[in-house]
Amino acid sequence: MPTALITGCGSLIGDAIARALADAGWRLALTDIDLALAQRIAGGLAPDAVASVHRLDVTDPDEVAGVVGAVAARSGIDALINAAGGGRGLGVPALEFVDHTRAQRDMIVEVNLRGLFEVTHAVLPVMIAAQRGAIVSITAARGLRGGPRAAVYSACKAGIIAFSQALAQEVGRYGIRVNTVAPGNTPARWKAREGENVRSPLGTDTSPDDVGNAVAFLLSDRAGHITGSCLDVSGGTALH
């Protein structure tokens, strides 16, 4: 069975991705900054779907190197899903750019962008040596079209898309595909249900399962000739 490393598996999106990949026959290395939450996600899956569970702070280079090394040595890494990230979920309020402190700006950039760089940089040598692999990073509709009180978050999510497009062109010769998924407004553990947030032409928010299914597709053989793409699963939110 191929092995997928998931960062941020403790989020509702990360949980849905884990379930979708387990259903598709993947073995999972589950990671989150909250180890107890990662273990809880693992407990909801079939035992043979879980390769390992790790605490992982994606902004800590030493921790990233240790976890990636352990997973690679134990089972290899056939796919990487960068799902760690967030804005208000990190405790940073939605503010206009002029009102953000430097510490708040830095936190959003560290987790959403630099953390993704750290994990991807650590995993790539494993995939290059194997001459195969797939990377899917979770961006957001805000990365396709910026929104008010989300300037830094929007910039990071747009950066993930451009980074992935560039990386796809660098690593395709090694048999590695790189894509992104852009959800719209999606339920989160920290977020109260707010009906007025629904802005999609379909009239519903993106569900975590929508994201999980999109990731499973991009990792499947059916997407074998897709790289450098951003799959918009915002229900058309980004059209507004």
Give a short account of the largest sheet.
7 strands, parallel
Helicity, as a percent range: 40-55%
Instruction: Give me the CATH fold name.
Output: Rossmann fold
Q: Structural class, from helix and strand content?
A: alpha/beta
The total count of helices amounts to 7
State the CATH class: Alpha Beta
- The global form is globular
Overall description:
This protein has a single domain, classed as NAD(P)-binding Rossmann-like Domain (Rossmann fold). With 240 residues, it is α/β, with parallel strands linked by helices. Helix 4 links the parallel strand 4 and strand 5. The protein is built from seven helices and seven strands; from the N terminus they run E-H-E-H-E-H-E-H-E-H-H-E-H-E. The protein is globular and about 45 Å long. The mean pLDDT is 94. Strands 3-2-1-4-5-6-7 form a seven-stranded parallel sheet, with helices on both faces.
